[in-house]
Design brief:
The protein is α+β, with helices and mostly antiparallel strands. It has two domains: about 1-70, no CATH class; about 80-145, no CATH class. It has four helices and eight strands; from the N terminus they run E-H-H-E-H-E-E-E-E-E-H-E. The protein has helices at about 25-30, 35-45, 60-70, 125-130; strands at about 20-25, 55-60, 80-85, 90, 95-100, 105-110, 120-125, 135-140. Strands 7-6-5-8 form a four-stranded mixed β-sheet. A two-stranded antiparallel sheet has the order 1-2. Strands 3-4 form a two-stranded antiparallel ribbon. A hairpin with a 6-residue loop joins strand 6 and strand 7 (about 120-125).
Length: about 150
């Protein structure tokens, strides 16, 4: 019988993990869709393994608990953007941001991270823009004309 191949996903999923079963690293890659390097990184970051076992075994209950903790997404507040360098939601430096309209109902917010001075971006709706004006010093930037616009 042929062994099933791993399904590569953008985000690992816990749908195939059984609570009362133990898994080898290659079985975890098949069940979650993550690669072996990701599973090894999870082990370094605190995913418990069964001590003294060769090959390394991971209990299904521990894996489900770790994936539940690991999958908590950080959400940005209305006046925050996600800084990829800091890997956390941050407020713009000096409370200043630029808004670039992209569509009639929304656009991009650009700001500088107050911690690491990296450029951050956030897609926002026009209704959110009105609320942000009280919290941030917003500058509305006009979009550059494209050759396809007729000029």
């Amino acid at each position: 019988m042929r062994k099933p191949t791993a399904i590569k996903r953008r985000r690992p999923t816990a749908q195939r993990i059984k609570f009362h079963r133990s898994y080898r690293i290659d079985e975890v890659t098949w069940a979650t869709g993550a690669c072996k390097a990701t599973i090894r990184r999870w082990i370094k970051n605190g995913l418990p393994t069964v001590q003294g076992s060769r090959p390394s075994l991971i209990l299904g209950a521990d894996l489900l608990e770790f994936m539940r903790k690991d999958s908590r997404r950080q959400t940005c507040g209305p006046a925050e953007c996600f800084c990829f360098k800091c890997r956390a939601p941050r407020k713009p430096a000096y409370g200043m941001a630029d808004y670039l309209p992209m569509t009639p109902t929304g656009g991009n917010l650009s700001a500088i991270c107050a911690q690491c001075e990296t450029l951050m971006h956030k897609r926002i709706n026009l209704t959110t823009l009105e609320r942000l004006r009280s919290e941030l010093d917003l500058k509305i930037v006009e979009r550059n004309r494209d050759l396809r616009d007729g000029r």
